[in-house]
TrEMBL record:
Residues 4-69 form the ASCH domain. It comes from Lactobacillus crispatus. The lineage of its organism: Bacteria, Bacillati, Bacillota, Bacilli, Lactobacillales. This is ASCH domain-containing protein. Coiled coil: none annotated. It comes from the Bacteria.
C-alpha cells in the first residue's frame, strides 16, 4: 500500500475526523487508499513512528493563494498500529502488515504508544539571609 509520513498529531486529527485536507508542496497522480504514518518526531498525543490509519486520497487541487496542494482525504479505517520507518514522498508498505481493527481495539492498542511529555519538576528554592536561591 502507498504510505505517507505525516506529523503524529495530524494523523490523530485525521482519525478524529478533524483533518480532511493534507497540505503539500507537491502533487501526485495517485488516488486511493493511503497509509498514514506518524513521523518519529515526538509530538504530544501522537504515536511516533507508527502507522495507525488508512485514508482515501480523493482528489488534489492546487491553491494559488496558499501556493500549495490540498490533498482531500477521508478516513477509511483505523488499523492495528504498525511500526514504520517514514520516508519522504510516497513510499510502499507491505499490505500484509495492515490489519483494520475496531475503534475500541484501536483505542486499547494505541494508548500505550501515545507520547506524553514529562513535566519538568520545579526546583525547590531556599532562602538564605532573606534572598531566594
Amino acid at each position: 500500500m502507498k504510505a505517507l509520513s505525516v506529523r503524529g498529531d495530524y494523523v490523530m486529527d485525521m482519525i478524529a475526523g478533524k483533518k480532511k485536507i493534507e497540505y503539500r508542496t507537491w502533487s501526485t497522480k495517485y488516488r486511493g487508499p493511503l497509509l498514514m504514518c506518524s513521523t518519529a518526531k515526538k509530538v504530544a498525543g501522537s504515536a511516533p513512528g507508527y502507522a495507525t490509519c488508512v485514508v482515501n486520497l480523493k482528489s488534489i487541487e492546487y491553491v494559488d493563494f496558499d501556493e500549495c496542494y490540498y490533498w482531500h482525504i477521508e478516513l477509511l479505517n483505523v488499523i492495528k498500529p504498525v511500526h514504520v520507518k517514514g520516508q519522504l514522498k510516497l513510499f510502499n508498505v507491505a499490505d500484509e502488515l495492515i490489519k483494520p481493527i475496531s475503534k475500541e481495539e484501536f483505542d486499547k492498542e494505541v494508548a500505550p504508544l501515545i507520547y506524553q511529555p514529562k513535566r519538568k519538576k520545579k526546583r525547590k528554592r531556599i532562602e538564605i539571609n532573606g534572598v531566594l536561591h
